[in-house]
# Entry
Amino acid sequence: MTDTLGPVPSNQQQAVEAIEEIYGSSRMMLATLPRELLAKVCIGLNCDMYDVLEPFRSTRPINGGPAYSDELVTLVRSLNFDLD
# Structure
């Protein structure tokens, strides 16, 4: 991307890093799956994974979302704590 667009302006670097962090997460990748396929690859423990992944789906521009949010960055960063 840098070859085509050039370096990221310093005032946009934080947003670019946040977007890379969100869209590189396994939960964002799972959130792109239709409900039926998601049910075949994973299940939630006492929850519906499709519902759990809603914040990720709703953030995607293709679904009318803003591309990223500080709340979603915090959610991605706190996932390790949720696994305990």
